[in-house]
Automatic annotation (TrEMBL):
<protein>
    <recommendedName>
        <fullName>EF-hand domain-containing protein</fullName>
    </recommendedName>
</protein>
<feature type="domain" description="EF-hand">
    <location>
        <begin position="140"/>
        <end position="175"/>
    </location>
</feature>
<dbReference type="InterPro" id="IPR052591">
    <property type="entry name" value="CML21-like"/>
</dbReference>
<keyword id="KW-0106">Calcium</keyword>
<feature type="domain" description="EF-hand">
    <location>
        <begin position="86"/>
        <end position="121"/>
    </location>
</feature>
<dbReference type="GO" id="GO:0005509">
    <property type="term" value="F:calcium ion binding"/>
</dbReference>
<feature type="domain" description="EF-hand">
    <location>
        <begin position="178"/>
        <end position="213"/>
    </location>
</feature>
<dbReference type="InterPro" id="IPR002048">
    <property type="entry name" value="EF_hand_dom"/>
</dbReference>
<feature type="domain" description="EF-hand">
    <location>
        <begin position="50"/>
        <end position="85"/>
    </location>
</feature>
<dbReference type="Pfam" id="PF13499">
    <property type="entry name" value="EF-hand_7"/>
</dbReference>
<dbReference type="InterPro" id="IPR011992">
    <property type="entry name" value="EF-hand-dom_pair"/>
</dbReference>
<dbReference type="InterPro" id="IPR018247">
    <property type="entry name" value="EF_Hand_1_Ca_BS"/>
</dbReference>
C-alpha cells in the first residue's frame, strides 16, 4: 500500500512533536472516549468517509494550478495562511513525510494526512469561536480521528505498539474479539517501516485507506 518508507529516524523531530501533542491530549481527556470497541469505530467508517471527502474543497483552494497536487510552494502558502510557523527544514520534512509516493506533490489522500498533522501541531487559538482550519466541522472530524488513535493508544505514549492494538481490538467483550490474523494484518498495514511501532502519520495513512478514501480517488482518476 505504501512505497515510501524512508529511514526510521528521518522525520524524528516531527514524530516527536506529534507524540508529545497526542500524549498531552490523552492526559487532558482523562481516559474519556466515545468509542467503546473497535466495532464502534468501524461503524463510523461511512461517516468518516463523507466528512473527509469534504476536504476536497480545501485541497482545491491550495492547489492553485489545479494539477491535482499540492507542490512545495503551494504548501508554504497553505502554512502561512494557517499561521503555522515552521522552519524551512521543518516544512520540507512535513512535505516529504506526506508525499508517500515521492511524486513531488501532495495528492488528495496525502493532503488529508498533512492537514490533520497541521491541525494537531498548530498552537491552540486564543479565540473559542474562530476555526483555525476554516471549518469547525473539519476540526471536529480531525478531533474524532485523533480520538480513534487514542483509543488504540492504551499506554498514552503517542505511538502504537502491537500489544496496544490487540488490546483495543479485544476490548469490548469476548464475543467481539478480532481473529489474530486480522489483528496482525491491521497492525502490519499501519507499521509500514516495520519497526514495531506506529506513529500518528502511519496510523493516518492506514486509517484513510480503511475508510475507503484512496479507493474513491482511484475510481475518480479512472473515470472518463
Amino acid at each position: 500500500m505504501f512505497c515510501h518508507c524512508g529511514s526510521p529516524n528521518k522525520y524524528q523531530w516531527l514524530d516527536a512533536k506529534l507524540e508529545a501533542k497526542l500524549a498531552e491530549v490523552k492526559r487532558s481527556s482523562q481516559g474519556h472516549s466515545n468509542f467503546k470497541s473497535i466495532n464502534s469505530i468501524i461503524m463510523r467508517f461511512p461517516q468518516f468517509r463523507e466528512e473527509l471527502k469534504d476536504i476536497r474543497g480545501v485541497f482545491e483552494q491550495y492547489d492553485e494550478d489545479s494539477n491535482g497536487n499540492i507542490d512545495y510552494e503551494e504548501l508554504k502558502k497553505c502554512l502561512q495562511k494557517l499561521q503555522l510557523h515552521l522552519s524551512e527544514e521543518e516544512i520540507k520534512d512535513l512535505f516529504h513525510s506526506c508525499d508517500m509516493d515521492e511524486s513531488k506533490g501532495i495528492q488528495f489522500n496525502e493532503f488529508i494526512v498533512l492537514l490533520c498533522l497541521i491541525y494537531l501541531l498548530k498552537e491552540p487559538s486564543s479565540s473559542n469561536t474562530t476555526s483555525t482550519m476554516g471549518s469547525l466541522q473539519l476540526e471536529a472530524t480531525f478531533d474524532t480521528v485523533i480520538e480513534v488513535f487514542m483509543f488504540l493508544d492504551k499506554s498514552g505514549s503517542g505511538k502504537l505498539n502491537k500489544n496496544d492494538v490487540i488490546k483495543a481490538m479485544n476490548e469490548a467483550s469476548p464475543t467481539e474479539r478480532s481473529p489474530a490474523r486480522i489483528t496482525k494484518t491491521r497492525f502490519r498495514e499501519m507499521d509500514w517501516d516495520r519497526n514495531g511501532k506506529v506513529s500518528f502519520r502511519e496510523f493516518l495513512f492506514a486509517f484513510i485507506h480503511w475508510v475507503g478514501i484512496d479507493t474513491d480517488e482511484e475510481m475518480l482518476t479512472k473515470s472518463p
